[in-house]
Write the structure tokens for this entry.
Amino acid sequence: MLLSRKLLIFLVLLLLTSMIAFPTSYEEGPYSKGNLLSLVVDFNPKNVAVVRVLLGRFKRVYVDGYFLEVFSGDRRRLCEGPLSVSITSHFKGIATCTDLGKVKEIPLTPETHLIAISMGPSKVSSSRRSWKTPGAILIKLDGNYLSVVNYLYLEEYLKGVVPYEMPPSWPLEALKAQAVAARTYTVKTALWRRSKGKYFDVKSTVADQVYHGMQGWRSSTNQAVDSTRGLIATYKGKPIFAFYSADCGGMTQDGELVFSNKLGGEPAPYLKPVRCIHKGRTWEVLLSPDDISKALRKVTNSKVLGLSDSGPFVIVHTKKSSLKIHKAIFRKLTGYKLKSSNYHFKGSMIYGYRFKGRGLGHGVGMCQWGARDMALRGASFEEILKHYYSGIEVVHILKLFR
Ligand SMILES: [Zn+2]
């Protein structure tokens, strides 16, 4: 009874999210001060041309820029930069900047939002990282941290992502395929987080995609972004889960098995395994009986007697029963000691197991080394994408609104 009610709620939620999550506009404006302030204050979750990047959660942050001004969430002009914000105690903080030449202190509460905008890019620094980035900067208290969110246009965001996801010296068609994959990943992730009411769309780390701002801009990667402007990969008219990894080792992995938790029940037949032109680097790792037992403790309480190799699966024999675990999941359980999900193994629970594999990374979706090799042999970015994501179309985002 309880289960069926849960199932019903889940189905209703799924229906609602698929309705809300669908984009309805793609509007970019000029980076004027008034427009930048509206980007934050009048944020429209249906506009996928704007992306909210969580630069990080910090104890202290410093923002500067050319003619930097600071506003509150209700558009009141508070002061002018440079702006320094720090946490003072639990759920409290303080911001310092100047107002009419005098140093002004603004106490922060969870309700206070600070919006910094400048003419040109802003410089944001924390003790760990710094960015030079276009768009507006929102700072707000989040528990015992300051959340710093950069509101900017998707295309400019991508210019600060692509050079960190693929070497800028690689062939242009591979970089263009990477730009489309990164754009699609961003749109898909943004729509999902917006449907859940989150205050940001993507993280600036490997958790989503590494974003370093304008420091990283390179002419080749900018060209890859500009020449594919607005293009995303879709399946049956919806943006795909555009996973990509460094080196699949000769064959990509089944995304529906590896990332079932990330797909939210949505079918992803375009993430089926395909052959890859790039053979991949080989690796070898020895895991002790202790390593194996420790890794499997998360899935079984029973004593592990041995492992056997069965295609894409690891069969775990325990005192009670046998478990079938996908090699990608097994890799995760070992704390990523295995370099990829493409491997074979031999051994015993007396001497340990020797794993021999190919590739680097989860292996789902586009293989970056494979994309490079295909581009070197004359493939276009569209051919590369259609090879790794079966049955997809590459379309302009605007086509989704009809
Ligand atoms: Zn590959």
The radius of gyration is 24 Å. Residues 15-21 have pLDDT under 50 and may be disordered. The first helix runs from residue 2 to 20.
